[in-house]
Amino acid sequence: MTRHKASLRSRWFTAAGRDLIPPFYLWIGLVLLTLFTLAPFAYLLLTSISPPIELLSGRLIPRSPTLGNYVRLFTGAAASSFVSAIRNSVSTALWTTLLTIAVGVFAAYAVAKIRFPFRNTALFAILAMQLLPSISIIVPMYIMMREGISFGIPFTGVELFRTPPLLDSTAGLVVAYTTFSLPFAVWLMAGYFQTISRELEDAAYVDGNGRLGALFRVVIPLSMPGIAATAIFTLLNAWDEFMFASAFTQTEHSKTLTVAIREFIGRYSIDWGLMTAGGIVSSLPPVIISLFLYRYIVGGLSAGGVKE
Length: 308
Fold this sequence. Notes:
By secondary structure, this protein is an all-alpha fold. It has a single domain, classed as MetI-like (MetI-like fold). Helices cover about 70% and strands about 5% of the residues. It is built from 15 helices and two strands. A two-stranded antiparallel ribbon has the order 1-2. The termini are far apart.
C-alpha cells in the first residue's frame, strides 16, 4: 500500500522525460486557465437571462431566469436596428474575407515562390504593416473615405478614377478591414506555400501548365488547410472589429453588430439586459465557427503541407 502511494505520488508530482512541469501542477494550471477563460462568458450568459430587478440588485445567479431580454432584443424598439446590424456584420465579414483571400493568395504565392528584386524588402514591409497600430491610420483613412478613394498614375498627379464617398457604408468598412487583414493573410499563407514541394510544381510545368496553372492545380489544393485557417481568422477579426466601425458609420445603413451593442449604453443609463443578450448573440458565430472548424485552424497553423 505504501509502495502504491509512493508510485502514485511520483507519477503525479514528478516531471517525466522531457516534461518541464509535473502532471499535477499542469492540470491545476489548465483548470485555472479554463475557469479564467470561461468565467466572463458564463457571467455574460447569466446576466442575459436575469430579470431587470435582479440585475440591479447585483445577483450573480438569477432566481427566476427569463428569456425576456432576447425577446425585447428581436421584437422591441431596438429590433430593427439590431437585425440590420447583424446583416451588415455578416455582409462586411464575408466580403472582407473573400477580398482578402482573393488578393492574398496571389501576393503570398509571389513572396513564397517567385524570385524578384527587393523580395526580402517586400516581405519586411508586409511584416511592418502588420506591426503598425490600427489607430495610427484611422485619421488618414477617414479622410480617404470622406472624399473617395482615388486611383491614378503615381507621381504624376493624373487621376484615373475616384470612388464615391465611402463613409457610412459597408463598402468603406470592407476596404478598411482589408487593409489590416491583408498583411496577416499574406504572411500566413506565404509560410504555408513555402512547404509545398518545388518538384510538384515542376511536374505541373512538364504537363503543360503555366505558373497560374500550377498555382490553381497544385499549390492551392495542397494549401487548402492554410487558406481555410487564414479565411477563418480574417472572418472572425472582421466580425469582432469595433474601432473602425465606430468611426466610419453613423446610421443603420452601415452600423455593425459591435456598434449596435455599444449603443445600448445611454447617456444616463445602461440597458444591461439588452447589452448582454446582444453580446451572447454576437459571440455565437465565432464560438460555432471555432468549434466546428477547429481542425482546419490547427491544420492551417501547423507545419502541414508537402515538405521539400
